[in-house]
């Protein structure tokens, strides 16, 4: 998939590497552009972040809105631009197609057991089914729409072979499905 084919509203994570350090920034695709996309601008301490420092290696991972697949684009150039209407954006440019990736890059182990999720700041407990786990993530099924946004913190507790486990992390992707019961 080409970067300019990514859906408007898709969530993007910019991974910036310089030497052995990596920084991550989150943004949202706002519109297609020549060889890329325009995204929401990223500010830190009320200053627009610039990505033109020599030696930066920039990779962008985007969860495409329509197919909910994650695509990774390498060697991305990011410019700070102002559109004709005066709005400031980051313009991401990539001349090469992105590749669909498994963001966890780890084997997933199916569990299918009951657990409890505490989500967000209100920490309300919800019954869930822990679908699968890996060394870098967990997938679980909620029994109702909880109005969760990507980036929110979740604490998952479940018991497997008489051992209690507590995992925590941020929501990356959220899928809504209609489950049928018989």
Structural topology:
Elements: E1 11-18, E2 21-33, E3 36-39, E4 43-44, E5 47-48, E6 57-63, E7 70-73, E8 77-82, E9 88-93, E10 99-100, E11 109-119, E12 124-134, E13 137-142, E14 153-160, E15 163-170
Antiparallel strand pairs: 1-2, 1-6, 2-3, 3-9, 4-5, 6-7, 7-10, 8-9, 11-12, 11-14, 12-13, 14-15
Give me the strand/helix succession.
EEEEEEEEEEEEEEE
How much helical structure, as a percent, in the residues?
under 10%
Name the beta content range: over 45%
Task: Work out the helix count.
Answer: 0
- Please state the structural category: mainly beta
Unreliable parts: none
Beta strand count: 15
Outline the biggest β-sheet.
8 strands, antiparallel
Distance between the termini: 39 Å
């Amino acid at each position: 998939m080409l970067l300019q084919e990514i859906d408007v509203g898709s969530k993007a994570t910019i991974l910036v590497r310089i030497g052995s350090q990596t920084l991550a920034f989150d943004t949202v695709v706002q519109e297609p552009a020549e060889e890329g996309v325009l995204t929401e601008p990223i500010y830190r301490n009320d200053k627009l972040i610039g990505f033109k420092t020599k030696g930066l290696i920039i990779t962008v991972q985007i969860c495409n809105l329509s197919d909910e697949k994650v695509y990774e684009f390498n060697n991305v150039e990011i410019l700070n631009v102002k559109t004709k209407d005066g709005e400031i954006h980051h313009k991401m440019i990539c001349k090469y197609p992105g590749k669909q990736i498994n963001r966890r890059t780890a084997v997933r182990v199916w569990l299918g057991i009951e657990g409890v999720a505490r989500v967000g700041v209100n920490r309300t407990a919800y019954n869930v089914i822990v679908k699968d786990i890996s060394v870098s993530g967990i997938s679980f099924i909620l029994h109702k729409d909880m109005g969760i946004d990507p980036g929110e913190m979740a604490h998952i507790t479940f018991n497997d072979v008489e051992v209690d486990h507590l995992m925590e992390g941020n929501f990356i992707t959220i899928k809504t499905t209609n489950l049928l019961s018989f």
